[in-house]
Amino acid sequence: MISREIRLKARPDAMPGPEHFELAETEIAPPGPGEVTVRNIWMSVDPYMRGRMREGKSYVAPFQIGTALEGGAVGEVVASNAPDFAVGDHVVSMFGWREAFTCPADAGLRKVDPALAPLQAYLGVLGMPGMTAWAGLLKVGALQEGETVLVSAASGAVGSVVCQIAKAKNCTVAGIAGSDEKCRWLKEKAGVDAAINYRTAGSLSRAIAAALPGGVDVCFENVGGDHLAAALNNM
Q: Which of 80, 102, 173, 230 could be bridged to 204 by S-S, CB 3.0 to 4.6 A?
């Protein structure tokens, strides 16, 4: 079985471009004892991947030159030599950036049910971004009913889920984003009480104070820098 994969060709110093990647073909071996072969259907490209393109010590190992990149993916088992996985099962893995792969069944594969949600949701609201939002807001932030919540990068994969969880907890929510279009989406779709375009707001600290005049109880900070300083001024 032949599969295509995206490999890191060179480490970018600034914005990654096509010259930093290469498309390669590789032969996928049939599954040995305790292994499965998976054909990927959906792949997630996430911000943390940019950090992994740099060489150096971090919370996760960097991508290696000449090898396929890694990332979240949802795929279908097309061959199995493992008792816990059958052909046709759908699984989430960290073997993205490739069309197919063979791996041990215990290499972090997790079954998902396409009858419960679209498969791509397991890379979003039911995947790492959704879990980050849920754990950060409810476990770390210890959000309580009726509190005020400020969310930076509020229209992003994590921030948008934070906004909706907070509204489900009957909280007053202000979201910060970088365009009027994103702010409209936050109000019309995510249901926030106030949306702040940081590019046109002038003083971000004063804009937050106007949106949440009673102050901020919980800040879900996705940006840092000026955003964090403005949030702290209102807590």
A: 230
The 10s digit of each residue's pLDDT in 132-187 is 999 999 999 999 999 999 999 999 999 999 999 999 999 999 999 999 999 999 99
Question: Does residue 64 come out as left (phi exceeding 0), alpha (psi in the -120 to 50 range) or beta?
Answer: beta
Contacts of 119 (CB under 8 A, 6+ apart): 41, 42, 74, 90, 112
Q: Which two tokens stand for residue 189?
A: 């779709």
Chain mean position to CA 157: 6
Domain extent, residue 185, equals 128-233
Q: DSSP label at 86?
A: -
Which uninterrupted H or E stretch holds 40?
A: strand 35-43
Query: How many structural domains does the chain have?
Result: 2
Phi, psi of 172 (to 5 degrees): -90, 125
Answer yes or no: do 19 and 103 share one domain: yes
Structure tokens at 144: 């309580």
Look at residues 108, 123, 138 and tell me which one is the last residue of a structural domain: 123
| CA gap 167, 133 in Å, rounded | 13
Instruction: Confirm if 207 and 234 have CB atoms less than 8 A apart.
Output: no
**Looking at the structure, do residues 7 and 97 belong to the same domain, yes or no?**
yes
Per residue in 53-91, pLDDT tens?
A: 998 888 888 999 999 999 999 999 999 999 999 999 999
Residue 223 three-state SS: coil
pTM score of the predicted model = 0.84
From the CB of residue 204, how many other CB atoms can be counted at a distance below 10 Å? 20
Q: What is the CATH number of the domain that holds 55?
A: 3.90.180.10
